[in-house]
Protein backbone atom coordinates (compact mmCIF):
# COMPACT_ATOMS: atom_id res chain seq x y z
CA UNK A 1 0.00 0.00 0.00
CA UNK A 2 2.98 2.31 0.25
CA UNK A 3 3.91 4.81 -2.46
CA UNK A 4 0.25 5.55 -3.22
CA UNK A 5 -0.69 9.18 -3.78
CA UNK A 6 -3.91 10.38 -2.15
CA UNK A 7 -5.63 13.70 -2.88
CA UNK A 8 -7.92 15.29 -0.29
CA UNK A 9 -10.34 18.09 -1.15
CA UNK A 10 -12.18 19.83 1.72
CA UNK A 11 -12.69 23.48 2.54
CA UNK A 12 -12.26 22.86 6.27
CA UNK A 13 -8.62 23.34 7.25
CA UNK A 14 -9.02 21.27 10.40
CA UNK A 15 -10.27 18.24 8.43
CA UNK A 16 -7.43 18.60 5.91
CA UNK A 17 -4.82 18.63 8.72
CA UNK A 18 -6.44 15.66 10.45
CA UNK A 19 -6.62 13.53 7.31
CA UNK A 20 -3.10 14.44 6.19
CA UNK A 21 -1.70 13.43 9.58
CA UNK A 22 -3.59 10.14 9.65
CA UNK A 23 -2.64 9.09 6.11
CA UNK A 24 0.99 10.24 6.05
CA UNK A 25 1.38 8.33 9.31
CA UNK A 26 0.42 5.20 7.34
CA UNK A 27 3.09 5.87 4.72
CA UNK A 28 0.93 7.45 2.01
CA UNK A 29 1.86 10.50 -0.02
CA UNK A 30 -0.81 13.14 0.46
CA UNK A 31 -1.73 16.38 -1.31
CA UNK A 32 -4.52 18.59 0.04
CA UNK A 33 -6.78 21.10 -1.72
CA UNK A 34 -9.01 23.60 0.06
CA UNK A 35 -10.72 24.53 -3.20
CA UNK A 36 -12.49 22.29 -5.77
CA UNK A 37 -11.27 24.56 -8.56
CA UNK A 38 -7.65 24.09 -7.46
CA UNK A 39 -8.21 20.33 -7.43
CA UNK A 40 -9.71 20.32 -10.92
CA UNK A 41 -6.93 22.50 -12.30
CA UNK A 42 -4.33 20.13 -10.85
CA UNK A 43 -6.05 17.06 -12.32
CA UNK A 44 -6.27 18.75 -15.70
CA UNK A 45 -2.66 19.91 -15.82
CA UNK A 46 -0.84 17.08 -14.03
CA UNK A 47 -0.93 14.31 -16.62
CA UNK A 48 1.94 12.23 -15.19
CA UNK A 49 1.71 12.33 -11.38
CA UNK A 50 -1.94 11.33 -11.03
CA UNK A 51 -3.48 10.30 -7.69
CA UNK A 52 -4.56 6.78 -6.81
CA UNK A 53 -7.45 7.96 -4.62
CA UNK A 54 -9.44 11.13 -3.97
CA UNK A 55 -11.16 11.94 -0.69
CA UNK A 56 -13.80 14.53 -1.62
CA UNK A 57 -16.01 16.50 0.74
CA UNK A 58 -19.68 16.71 -0.14
CA UNK A 59 -20.42 20.21 1.18
CA UNK A 60 -18.09 22.99 0.04
CA UNK A 61 -18.82 26.67 -0.51
CA UNK A 62 -17.10 27.14 -3.88
CA UNK A 63 -18.64 24.09 -5.56
CA UNK A 64 -20.58 21.19 -4.06
CA UNK A 65 -19.18 17.67 -4.04
CA UNK A 66 -21.63 16.31 -6.63
CA UNK A 67 -20.66 18.83 -9.30
CA UNK A 68 -16.99 18.43 -8.43
CA UNK A 69 -17.35 14.64 -8.76
CA UNK A 70 -18.94 15.02 -12.21
CA UNK A 71 -15.98 17.11 -13.40
CA UNK A 72 -13.44 14.78 -11.80
CA UNK A 73 -15.01 11.79 -13.58
CA UNK A 74 -14.80 13.67 -16.87
CA UNK A 75 -11.09 14.32 -16.35
CA UNK A 76 -10.10 10.96 -14.85
CA UNK A 77 -12.83 8.33 -15.26
CA UNK A 78 -10.88 5.56 -13.52
CA UNK A 79 -9.90 7.56 -10.41
CA UNK A 80 -11.21 6.00 -7.21
CA UNK A 81 -13.25 8.63 -5.31
CA UNK A 82 -14.49 8.40 -1.72
CA UNK A 83 -17.05 11.03 -0.65
CA UNK A 84 -17.07 12.51 2.84
CA UNK A 85 -20.43 13.65 4.11
CA UNK A 86 -21.93 15.03 7.32
CA UNK A 87 -25.20 13.96 8.91
CA UNK A 88 -28.27 14.79 6.86
CA UNK A 89 -26.56 14.48 3.47
CA UNK A 90 -26.91 10.72 3.00
CA UNK A 91 -29.17 11.22 -0.05
CA UNK A 92 -26.42 13.19 -1.72
CA UNK A 93 -23.95 10.42 -0.91
CA UNK A 94 -26.21 7.91 -2.63
CA UNK A 95 -26.38 10.19 -5.67
CA UNK A 96 -22.59 10.34 -5.64
CA UNK A 97 -22.41 6.56 -5.64
CA UNK A 98 -24.61 6.52 -8.74
CA UNK A 99 -22.15 8.91 -10.40
CA UNK A 100 -19.32 6.46 -9.79
CA UNK A 101 -18.00 7.22 -6.30
CA UNK A 102 -16.48 4.11 -4.71
CA UNK A 103 -17.75 4.70 -1.17
CA UNK A 104 -18.59 7.41 1.33
CA UNK A 105 -17.58 8.23 4.89
CA UNK A 106 -19.99 9.87 7.32
CA UNK A 107 -18.36 12.52 9.51
CA UNK A 108 -17.12 12.15 12.11
CA UNK A 109 -15.47 8.81 11.30
CA UNK A 110 -12.88 6.84 13.30
CA UNK A 111 -9.46 6.35 11.78
CA UNK A 112 -10.03 2.58 11.56
CA UNK A 113 -12.98 3.20 9.23
CA UNK A 114 -10.91 5.66 7.18
CA UNK A 115 -8.05 3.19 6.78
CA UNK A 116 -10.41 0.35 5.81
CA UNK A 117 -12.16 2.37 3.10
CA UNK A 118 -8.83 3.67 1.76
CA UNK A 119 -7.39 0.15 1.67
CA UNK A 120 -10.41 -1.29 -0.18
CA UNK A 121 -10.40 1.59 -2.64
CA UNK A 122 -6.72 1.18 -3.45
CA UNK A 123 -7.11 -2.60 -3.81
CA UNK A 124 -9.88 -1.98 -6.30
CA UNK A 125 -7.71 0.47 -8.22
CA UNK A 126 -4.89 -2.07 -8.40
CA UNK A 127 -7.26 -4.76 -9.65
CA UNK A 128 -8.64 -2.42 -12.31
CA UNK A 129 -5.13 -1.56 -13.45
CA UNK A 130 -4.18 -5.24 -13.60
CA UNK A 131 -7.33 -5.87 -15.59
CA UNK A 132 -6.50 -3.08 -18.03
CA UNK A 133 -2.97 -4.44 -18.40
CA UNK A 134 -4.25 -7.95 -19.07
CA UNK A 135 -6.71 -6.65 -21.64
CA UNK A 136 -3.91 -4.78 -23.40
CA UNK A 137 -1.83 -7.96 -23.39
CA UNK A 138 -4.76 -9.93 -24.77
CA UNK A 139 -5.20 -7.41 -27.55
CA UNK A 140 -1.49 -7.60 -28.33
CA UNK A 141 -1.58 -11.40 -28.38
CA UNK A 142 -4.55 -11.36 -30.74
CA UNK A 143 -2.94 -8.80 -33.00
CA UNK A 144 -2.30 -10.53 -36.33
CA UNK A 145 0.20 -7.83 -37.23
CA UNK A 146 0.14 -5.99 -40.51
CA UNK A 147 -2.04 -7.64 -43.13
CA UNK A 148 -0.61 -7.14 -46.60
CA UNK A 149 -3.20 -6.16 -49.19
CA UNK A 150 -1.58 -4.32 -52.06
CA UNK A 151 -3.88 -5.77 -54.72
CA UNK A 152 -7.63 -5.51 -55.09
CA UNK A 153 -8.31 -9.21 -54.44
CA UNK A 154 -7.35 -9.25 -50.76
CA UNK A 155 -8.19 -5.61 -50.12
CA UNK A 156 -11.84 -6.33 -50.90
CA UNK A 157 -11.81 -9.21 -48.41
CA UNK A 158 -10.38 -7.00 -45.65
CA UNK A 159 -12.85 -4.24 -46.41
CA UNK A 160 -15.78 -6.63 -45.97
CA UNK A 161 -14.21 -8.13 -42.85
CA UNK A 162 -13.86 -4.68 -41.29
CA UNK A 163 -17.47 -3.80 -42.11
CA UNK A 164 -18.91 -6.95 -40.52
CA UNK A 165 -16.60 -6.96 -37.49
CA UNK A 166 -18.89 -5.01 -35.18
CA UNK A 167 -21.89 -7.24 -35.76
CA UNK A 168 -22.37 -10.45 -33.78
CA UNK A 169 -23.28 -12.43 -36.91
CA UNK A 170 -21.43 -15.65 -37.66
CA UNK A 171 -18.76 -15.53 -40.34
CA UNK A 172 -17.67 -18.38 -42.60
CA UNK A 173 -14.22 -18.03 -44.16
CA UNK A 174 -13.47 -20.19 -47.19
CA UNK A 175 -10.10 -20.65 -48.83
CA UNK A 176 -7.28 -23.01 -49.60
CA UNK A 177 -4.90 -24.14 -46.87
CA UNK A 178 -2.38 -21.46 -46.00
CA UNK A 179 -4.35 -18.49 -47.35
CA UNK A 180 -4.55 -16.80 -43.93
CA UNK A 181 -8.02 -17.75 -42.67
CA UNK A 182 -7.06 -17.50 -38.98
CA UNK A 183 -5.28 -14.19 -39.60
CA UNK A 184 -8.51 -12.77 -41.06
CA UNK A 185 -10.53 -14.24 -38.16
CA UNK A 186 -8.26 -12.48 -35.66
CA UNK A 187 -8.56 -9.29 -37.69
CA UNK A 188 -12.37 -9.47 -37.40
CA UNK A 189 -12.16 -10.09 -33.65
CA UNK A 190 -9.70 -7.24 -33.11
CA UNK A 191 -12.02 -4.81 -34.88
CA UNK A 192 -15.14 -6.00 -33.02
CA UNK A 193 -16.80 -4.89 -29.80
CA UNK A 194 -15.39 -8.06 -28.19
CA UNK A 195 -11.76 -7.09 -28.87
CA UNK A 196 -10.87 -6.76 -25.19
CA UNK A 197 -11.75 -10.42 -24.68
CA UNK A 198 -9.49 -13.35 -25.53
CA UNK A 199 -9.74 -14.79 -29.04
CA UNK A 200 -10.07 -18.57 -28.80
CA UNK A 201 -9.42 -21.00 -31.63
CA UNK A 202 -9.58 -24.74 -32.20
CA UNK A 203 -8.67 -26.91 -35.17
CA UNK A 204 -11.59 -29.27 -35.59
CA UNK A 205 -9.63 -31.58 -37.89
CA UNK A 206 -6.77 -32.09 -35.42
CA UNK A 207 -8.75 -33.92 -32.69
CA UNK A 208 -10.70 -37.15 -32.48
CA UNK A 209 -14.47 -36.67 -32.18
CA UNK A 210 -14.75 -37.47 -28.45
CA UNK A 211 -11.80 -35.25 -27.56
CA UNK A 212 -13.10 -32.43 -29.74
CA UNK A 213 -16.51 -32.65 -28.05
CA UNK A 214 -14.92 -32.46 -24.59
CA UNK A 215 -12.70 -29.55 -25.65
CA UNK A 216 -15.66 -27.59 -27.02
CA UNK A 217 -18.41 -28.38 -24.54
CA UNK A 218 -16.49 -29.32 -21.42
CA UNK A 219 -17.57 -32.15 -19.15
CA UNK A 220 -19.02 -32.80 -15.72
CA UNK A 221 -17.30 -34.82 -13.05
CA UNK A 222 -17.60 -38.54 -13.79
CA UNK A 223 -18.71 -38.00 -17.40
CA UNK A 224 -16.20 -40.63 -18.53
CA UNK A 225 -13.33 -42.68 -17.18
CA UNK A 226 -10.69 -40.32 -15.87
CA UNK A 227 -13.05 -37.34 -15.53
CA UNK A 228 -12.23 -36.84 -11.84
CA UNK A 229 -13.37 -33.22 -11.92
CA UNK A 230 -15.55 -30.97 -14.02
CA UNK A 231 -13.90 -28.95 -16.76
CA UNK A 232 -15.08 -25.96 -18.74
CA UNK A 233 -14.98 -26.17 -22.51
CA UNK A 234 -14.01 -23.53 -25.03
CA UNK A 235 -17.62 -22.45 -25.43
CA UNK A 236 -17.78 -21.31 -21.81
CA UNK A 237 -14.31 -19.78 -21.96
CA UNK A 238 -15.35 -17.86 -25.08
CA UNK A 239 -18.47 -16.41 -23.45
CA UNK A 240 -18.78 -12.74 -24.49
CA UNK A 241 -15.88 -13.28 -26.88
CA UNK A 242 -15.06 -14.93 -30.22
CA UNK A 243 -14.54 -18.62 -30.96
CA UNK A 244 -12.79 -19.59 -34.18
CA UNK A 245 -13.67 -23.06 -35.49
CA UNK A 246 -10.99 -23.93 -38.00
CA UNK A 247 -11.64 -26.78 -40.47
CA UNK A 248 -15.32 -26.86 -39.60
CA UNK A 249 -15.91 -29.07 -42.63
CA UNK A 250 -14.28 -31.98 -40.79
CA UNK A 251 -16.73 -32.00 -37.85
CA UNK A 252 -18.79 -35.19 -37.46
CA UNK A 253 -22.59 -35.16 -38.00
CA UNK A 254 -23.31 -35.63 -34.27
CA UNK A 255 -21.13 -32.66 -33.30
CA UNK A 256 -22.65 -30.61 -36.11
CA UNK A 257 -26.05 -31.07 -34.46
CA UNK A 258 -24.70 -29.93 -31.09
CA UNK A 259 -23.04 -26.88 -32.59
CA UNK A 260 -26.28 -26.02 -34.35
CA UNK A 261 -28.05 -25.89 -30.98
CA UNK A 262 -25.47 -23.43 -29.65
CA UNK A 263 -25.87 -21.23 -32.71
CA UNK A 264 -29.67 -21.34 -32.59
CA UNK A 265 -30.38 -21.27 -28.86
CA UNK A 266 -27.17 -20.00 -27.28
CA UNK A 267 -27.09 -23.02 -25.00
CA UNK A 268 -25.42 -26.43 -24.80
CA UNK A 269 -24.96 -29.44 -22.56
CA UNK A 270 -21.47 -30.33 -21.31
CA UNK A 271 -20.45 -33.95 -21.80
CA UNK A 272 -22.34 -35.98 -19.18
CA UNK A 273 -24.40 -32.97 -18.11
CA UNK A 274 -28.18 -32.57 -17.89
CA UNK A 275 -28.50 -28.85 -17.17
CA UNK A 276 -28.14 -26.50 -20.18
CA UNK A 277 -25.54 -23.76 -19.98
CA UNK A 278 -26.06 -20.45 -21.72
CA UNK A 279 -23.35 -18.56 -23.59
CA UNK A 280 -22.99 -15.49 -25.78
CA UNK A 281 -20.34 -16.39 -28.35
CA UNK A 282 -19.47 -14.86 -31.71
CA UNK A 283 -18.61 -17.71 -34.09
CA UNK A 284 -16.13 -17.51 -36.93
CA UNK A 285 -15.64 -20.75 -38.84
CA UNK A 286 -13.27 -21.67 -41.65
CA UNK A 287 -12.64 -24.53 -44.03
CA UNK A 288 -10.73 -25.39 -47.17
CA UNK A 289 -13.58 -27.61 -48.33
CA UNK A 290 -16.44 -26.75 -50.68
CA UNK A 291 -19.17 -26.74 -48.05
CA UNK A 292 -21.98 -26.35 -50.57
CA UNK A 293 -20.78 -29.55 -52.21
CA UNK A 294 -20.50 -31.19 -48.78
CA UNK A 295 -24.11 -30.18 -48.08
CA UNK A 296 -25.30 -31.49 -51.45
CA UNK A 297 -23.60 -34.83 -50.81
CA UNK A 298 -25.03 -35.11 -47.28
CA UNK A 299 -21.80 -34.77 -45.33
CA UNK A 300 -22.57 -31.36 -43.82
CA UNK A 301 -25.85 -30.14 -42.34
CA UNK A 302 -27.58 -27.57 -44.50
CA UNK A 303 -29.09 -25.75 -41.50
CA UNK A 304 -25.66 -25.45 -39.83
CA UNK A 305 -24.16 -24.20 -43.08
CA UNK A 306 -26.66 -21.36 -43.30
CA UNK A 307 -26.25 -20.54 -39.59
CA UNK A 308 -22.51 -20.20 -40.08
CA UNK A 309 -22.62 -18.54 -43.49
CA UNK A 310 -24.44 -15.37 -42.43
CA UNK A 311 -21.37 -13.53 -43.67
CA UNK A 312 -19.22 -15.38 -46.18
CA UNK A 313 -15.61 -14.46 -46.98
CA UNK A 314 -13.63 -16.18 -49.72
CA UNK A 315 -9.87 -15.75 -49.47
CA UNK A 316 -8.04 -15.73 -52.80
CA UNK A 317 -5.04 -18.05 -53.16
CA UNK A 318 -1.61 -16.45 -53.28
CA UNK A 319 -1.26 -17.14 -57.02
CA UNK A 320 -4.09 -14.63 -57.49
CA UNK A 321 -2.33 -12.06 -55.29
CA UNK A 322 0.84 -11.49 -57.31
CA UNK A 323 0.81 -7.79 -56.34
CA UNK A 324 1.13 -8.80 -52.68
CA UNK A 325 4.07 -11.21 -52.99
CA UNK A 326 6.83 -8.58 -52.89
CA UNK A 327 5.46 -6.94 -49.72
CA UNK A 328 4.64 -10.29 -48.10
CA UNK A 329 8.14 -11.60 -48.76
CA UNK A 330 9.75 -8.51 -47.21
CA UNK A 331 7.37 -8.69 -44.24
CA UNK A 332 8.30 -12.32 -43.59
CA UNK A 333 12.00 -11.49 -44.06
CA UNK A 334 11.77 -8.91 -41.29
CA UNK A 335 9.84 -11.31 -39.09
CA UNK A 336 12.12 -14.35 -39.44
CA UNK A 337 15.40 -12.41 -39.30
CA UNK A 338 14.32 -10.88 -36.00
CA UNK A 339 13.34 -14.29 -34.67
CA UNK A 340 16.48 -16.09 -35.88
CA UNK A 341 18.92 -13.21 -35.42
CA UNK A 342 19.84 -13.47 -39.10
CA UNK A 343 22.02 -10.87 -40.87
CA UNK A 344 19.86 -10.98 -44.03
CA UNK A 345 18.22 -7.61 -44.69
CA UNK A 346 17.37 -7.58 -48.39
CA UNK A 347 15.84 -9.71 -51.14
CA UNK A 348 17.41 -9.63 -54.60
CA UNK A 349 15.04 -8.42 -57.37
CA UNK A 350 15.64 -11.67 -59.30
CA UNK A 351 14.51 -13.60 -56.24
CA UNK A 352 11.35 -11.48 -56.02
CA UNK A 353 10.66 -12.16 -59.70
CA UNK A 354 11.06 -15.90 -59.10
CA UNK A 355 8.69 -15.73 -56.13
CA UNK A 356 6.10 -13.91 -58.21
CA UNK A 357 6.33 -16.52 -60.96
CA UNK A 358 5.67 -19.46 -58.60
CA UNK A 359 2.14 -20.86 -58.31
CA UNK A 360 2.27 -21.32 -54.48
CA UNK A 361 0.20 -24.45 -53.80
CA UNK A 362 0.89 -23.89 -50.09
CA UNK A 363 -0.07 -20.22 -50.34
CA UNK A 364 1.10 -17.64 -47.77
CA UNK A 365 2.28 -20.31 -45.35
CA UNK A 366 4.54 -21.76 -48.03
CA UNK A 367 5.95 -18.31 -48.83
CA UNK A 368 6.86 -17.71 -45.19
CA UNK A 369 8.62 -21.09 -45.03
CA UNK A 370 10.55 -20.34 -48.23
CA UNK A 371 11.73 -16.99 -46.87
CA UNK A 372 12.80 -18.53 -43.56
CA UNK A 373 14.69 -21.27 -45.40
CA UNK A 374 16.35 -18.68 -47.61
CA UNK A 375 17.57 -16.58 -44.67
CA UNK A 376 19.16 -19.67 -43.13
CA UNK A 377 20.99 -20.57 -46.35
CA UNK A 378 21.98 -17.04 -47.37
CA UNK A 379 25.50 -15.75 -46.85
CA UNK A 380 25.62 -12.03 -46.37
CA UNK A 381 22.81 -9.51 -46.15
CA UNK A 382 20.91 -10.36 -49.36
CA UNK A 383 18.66 -13.33 -50.06
CA UNK A 384 19.24 -14.29 -53.70
CA UNK A 385 17.58 -16.65 -56.14
CA UNK A 386 20.27 -19.19 -55.26
CA UNK A 387 18.73 -19.66 -51.81
CA UNK A 388 15.28 -20.47 -53.21
CA UNK A 389 14.14 -24.08 -53.68
CA UNK A 390 14.67 -25.61 -57.12
CA UNK A 391 10.95 -25.63 -57.87
CA UNK A 392 10.95 -21.83 -57.50
CA UNK A 393 14.31 -20.80 -58.96
CA UNK A 394 13.85 -23.24 -61.85
CA UNK A 395 17.06 -25.22 -61.27
CA UNK A 396 17.49 -27.70 -62.90
CA UNK A 397 16.03 -26.94 -66.33
CA UNK A 398 17.49 -29.51 -68.72
CA UNK A 399 15.93 -28.51 -72.03
CA UNK A 400 17.30 -25.02 -72.68
CA UNK A 401 20.50 -25.22 -70.62
CA UNK A 402 21.91 -28.68 -71.23
CA UNK A 403 24.53 -28.61 -74.02
CA UNK A 404 23.68 -30.49 -77.22
CA UNK A 405 26.00 -32.24 -79.67
CA UNK A 406 25.09 -31.55 -83.27
CA UNK A 407 21.50 -30.83 -82.36
CA UNK A 408 21.07 -34.18 -80.61
CA UNK A 409 20.38 -34.55 -76.88
CA UNK A 410 23.40 -35.33 -74.74
CA UNK A 411 23.55 -38.27 -72.36
CA UNK A 412 21.87 -38.21 -68.97
CA UNK A 413 25.33 -38.36 -67.43
CA UNK A 414 26.34 -35.15 -69.20
CA UNK A 415 23.02 -33.52 -68.28
CA UNK A 416 23.51 -34.36 -64.60
CA UNK A 417 27.08 -33.10 -64.65
CA UNK A 418 25.95 -29.85 -66.27
CA UNK A 419 23.29 -29.23 -63.62
CA UNK A 420 25.82 -29.78 -60.84
CA UNK A 421 28.17 -27.29 -62.48
CA UNK A 422 25.32 -24.75 -62.72
CA UNK A 423 24.38 -25.23 -59.09
CA UNK A 424 27.97 -24.82 -57.93
CA UNK A 425 28.41 -21.72 -60.06
CA UNK A 426 25.15 -20.27 -58.79
CA UNK A 427 26.20 -20.75 -55.17
CA UNK A 428 29.80 -19.69 -55.61
CA UNK A 429 31.07 -23.21 -54.97
CA UNK A 430 29.20 -23.61 -51.68
CA UNK A 431 28.50 -27.35 -51.68
CA UNK A 432 25.88 -27.29 -48.93
CA UNK A 433 23.80 -24.67 -50.73
CA UNK A 434 24.34 -26.36 -54.10
CA UNK A 435 23.13 -29.67 -52.67
CA UNK A 436 20.07 -27.94 -51.28
CA UNK A 437 19.30 -26.36 -54.66
CA UNK A 438 19.63 -29.73 -56.38
CA UNK A 439 17.51 -31.35 -53.66
CA UNK A 440 20.13 -33.97 -52.88
CA UNK A 441 22.25 -34.59 -49.80
CA UNK A 442 25.65 -33.01 -49.42
CA UNK A 443 27.16 -36.51 -49.28
CA UNK A 444 25.58 -37.38 -52.63
CA UNK A 445 26.84 -34.14 -54.15
CA UNK A 446 30.36 -34.79 -52.91
CA UNK A 447 30.28 -38.23 -54.49
CA UNK A 448 29.00 -36.82 -57.79
CA UNK A 449 31.65 -34.08 -57.80
CA UNK A 450 34.35 -36.70 -57.35
CA UNK A 451 32.74 -38.97 -59.95
CA UNK A 452 32.67 -36.23 -62.59
CA UNK A 453 36.06 -34.83 -61.66
CA UNK A 454 34.61 -31.44 -60.78
CA UNK A 455 36.96 -30.97 -57.84
CA UNK A 456 40.05 -31.04 -60.06
CA UNK A 457 42.03 -28.05 -61.29
CA UNK A 458 42.28 -29.14 -64.92
CA UNK A 459 40.09 -26.35 -66.16
CA UNK A 460 36.94 -28.47 -66.24
CA UNK A 461 36.29 -28.42 -62.55
CA UNK A 462 34.74 -25.87 -60.27
CA UNK A 463 36.92 -24.03 -57.76
Automatic annotation (TrEMBL):
Q: One Pfam match, by short name?
A: AAA_lid_14
What terms describe the molecular function in GO for this protein? Answer: ATP binding; sequence-specific DNA binding
Q: Which UniProt keywords apply?
A: Activator, ATP-binding, Cytoplasm, DNA-binding, Nitrogen fixation, Nucleotide-binding, Phosphoprotein, Repressor, Transcription, Transcription regulation, Two-component regulatory system
List the subcellular locations: Cytoplasm
Modified residues annotated as 4-aspartylphosphate in this record: 57
Q: Name one GO cellular component term.
A: cytoplasm
Q: Which Gene3D superfamilies match?
A: 1.10.8.60, 3.40.50.2300, Homeodomain-like, P-loop containing nucleotide triphosphate hydrolases
Q: Which residues form the Response regulatory domain?
A: 5-122
Domain Sigma-54 factor interaction span(s) in chain numbering: 147-376
User: Major place of localization?
Assistant: cytoplasm
- UniProt entry tagged with the keyword Repressor: yes
What InterPro entries does the record tag this protein with?
Answer: AAA+_ATPase (IPR003593), AAA_lid_NorR (IPR058031), CheY-like_superfamily (IPR011006), Homeodomain-like_sf (IPR009057), HTH_Fis (IPR002197), P-loop_NTPase (IPR027417), Sig_transdc_resp-reg_receiver (IPR001789), Sigma_54_int (IPR002078)
GO biological process annotation, one example:
regulation of DNA-templated transcription
The record, for CDD domains, names: AAA
From the Swiss-Prot or TrEMBL record, give the protein name. DNA-binding transcriptional regulator NtrC
Species name = Geoalkalibacter subterraneus
Amino acid sequence: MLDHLIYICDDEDGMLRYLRKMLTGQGFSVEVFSSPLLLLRNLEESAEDTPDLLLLDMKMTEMDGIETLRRVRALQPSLCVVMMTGHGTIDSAVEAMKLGAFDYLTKPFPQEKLFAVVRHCLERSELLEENRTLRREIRNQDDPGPIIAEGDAFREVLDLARRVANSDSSVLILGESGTGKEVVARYIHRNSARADRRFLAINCAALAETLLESQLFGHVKGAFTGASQAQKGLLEEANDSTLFLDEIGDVSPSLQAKLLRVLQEGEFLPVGGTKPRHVDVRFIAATNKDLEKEVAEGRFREDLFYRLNVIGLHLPPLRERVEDIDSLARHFLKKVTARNNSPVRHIDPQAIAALQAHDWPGNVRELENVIERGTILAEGETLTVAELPVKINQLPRPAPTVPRAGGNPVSLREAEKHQIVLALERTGGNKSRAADLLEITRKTLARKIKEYGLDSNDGQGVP
